[in-house]
Amino acid sequence: MADGVITERSGLWTRRGAPPVMAHQHRHDDVELNVVREGRLRYLFGGSRVDVNAGDIALFWGTTPHRLVRPGTAELSDVLWLHVPLVTVLSWELSPAQLGGLLQPRPVVVPAAALDYDAATAVRRWHGDIGRGDHALAFLELQALVRRVLCSAAQDSPPTSPPEHLDAVMLMTRLIAERFRDPLTPAQVADASHLHPSYAMTVFRSVMGCTIGAYLVRCRVTEAQRLLASTRLSAAEVGHAAGFGSQSQFYDHFGRACGTTPARYRASIAGT
């Protein structure tokens, strides 16, 4: 924790339930989707309060420090939650305008009814798809909903300026999304920004909340999780396919990120 902000690990997950109350702000490099079926969410994004009411969908990139607090009145809430790694969203090739809207330091909030789309049913399906390891099907439907949310928000809001240094950071994250399975180095990623390498690394950390090297590891761990859940590749084959240079490196980073071994992770997924 730095400056009272907890940096959380990236990963794909879903859940349904009441919102927790957070004692501290946190941040993550996932894209988060909230579907509020009943009740209300109240966030603090930096110093700004954001309410997400029943029937609303909230979509945001979690790199801005944020936390959930109790609404002004006590009420039961029923919320569907989904996190998807930013590297996955970048692979969808959203337009610059859509990316600019998504990567703002506040949530995009739209009423589900405005989309003519049963988002609650869709999220329940994703929960089942992801639990069975069928990430491809979940991602196709999720991509469609993300695009619908961003298009709806763009119709109701004036254009907004992207976060500072976004262009340079997006060049770097796009390169990582395309080549993290290769023996890519932080210096090679920094070169893609067209900035001085040391400055590029500073800019990346200021926007993403982690170093280029740490982000590369996150992407590789996320890919390893996907392969363990959706293929029959051996652990050695998964580590190689995900971009790790050696088996010891794979097991070390996977254990640090997931708190378990690849074999136990696969077994836990198979048992869901």
Automatic annotation (TrEMBL):
Residues 170-268 form the HTH araC/xylS-type domain. It comes from the Bacteria. InterPro entries: AraC_XylS_family_regulators, Cupin_2, Homeodomain-like_sf, HTH_AraC, RmlC-like_jellyroll, RmlC_Cupin_sf. Keywords: DNA-binding, Transcription, Transcription regulation. GO terms for molecular function: DNA-binding transcription factor activity; sequence-specific DNA binding. The keyword Transcription applies. It holds the Pfam family HTH_18. SMART domains: HTH_ARAC (SM00342). This is AraC family transcriptional regulator. The lineage of its organism: Bacteria, Bacillati, Actinomycetota, Actinomycetes, Micrococcales.
